[in-house]
Amino acid sequence: MKYGYLLFGLLLSCQTEKEYQGEYTEFENVNYVTLTNETTDGGSQIGYLKSGFLESNAVFCFCDINCSRTLISVSELQFNEGTSDFRYKENLSDAWVVKSSKDWCTKHD
Fold first, then answer.
1. Nearest Cα to 48, choosing from 91, 88, 83?
2. Is this model's pTM higher than 0.90 or not?
3. Coil, strand or helix: which one is 94?
4. Phi, psi (degrees; rounded to nearest 5) at 70
5. Closest alpha carbon to 45 in 98, 90, 106
6. Where are the domains of the chain?
7. Positive or negative: CA dihedral 45, 51, 55, 57
8. pLDDT tens digits for 63-106?
9. Rounded to whole angstroms, how far apart are CA atoms 29 and 76?
C-alpha cells in the first residue's frame, strides 16, 4: 500500500509539471533596428528609426554600393532578443506591427 501512494504521488507530480519552452524574453525599447539582405545584385537595407533618431547614428550591416536603403520613422520601437522579432508603431495611437528579423543581418540599439 505504501508503494501505491508513492506511485500515485509520482504520477500526480509528473502531470502537473510544465514543459520547458526556453527562456522567456520581453520586448525592450530601442532607438533603431536595421535589416540588411545582401545579394549578388546589391541587396536591400531597411532602417526603422525612432522619431528624432538620426540615420548617421544607426549601424547597418555591410552591403554593396548597389544596395537600396529605405528608412521608416516610427514613434515606438521595441526588439525581442529571444525571438529576433521587433515591433513598432508609426503613431502612438496605432496598434503594434510585429515583424521578424530572422532572415536578415540585424543591428539594433
1. 88
2. no
3. coil
4. -120, 135
5. 106
6. 23-108
7. negative
8. 988 999 999 999 999 999 999 999 999 999 999 999 999 999 99
9. 8
